[in-house]
Amino acid sequence: EVNSAWRMEIAVVLLDSLPEDVHPAGFAAALLNYWGVGDKRLHTGLLALLLLGQRRLEVRTGYGAGRVIKPELLQSIQEERMLPHLRASEPGAALEVLVRSISEAMEKDGPPHWRRAAASPAAAE
Questions:
Q1: What is residue 29's DSSP assignment?
Q2: For labeling, which of 19, 38, 77, 116 is most exposed (least CB within 10 Å)?
């Protein structure tokens, strides 16, 4: 949904855990770059890493995506919308909420030049 409307891509990674010597934040950032998530020119990728066994969630954005999806917004989404699902052992629902929330944020604040031509309301007329 986000990728079809915007020049933005979201990758979701669900694992039990990482080895003790691997830092989740660094792993998420490295994976975001290694996979090349998002538009290469605009740096509009977002990667969500959920480690079930370690009870940890890391969300990393590309430089461009970070201008729209700010840390305060991500923290709010995680605490207010995702955490209730995670506490209820519903990781799928929590990740769906994340993607839906990012889509809503893009509709509200996404730069017009990030919108794909086929998704713009003017192109549909």
A1: H
A2: 19
pLDDT tens digits for range 21-78 = 999 999 999 999 999 999 999 999 999 999 999 999 999 999 999 999 999 999 999 9
Considering only CA atoms, which of 62, 97, 63 is closest in space to residue 77? Answer: 97
Please list, in sequence order, all residues whose beta carbon lies within 8 angstroms of the beta carbon of residue 106, skipping any fewer than 6 positions away: 2, 5, 6, 8, 68, 114
Q: List the beta bridge partners of residue 13.
A: 49
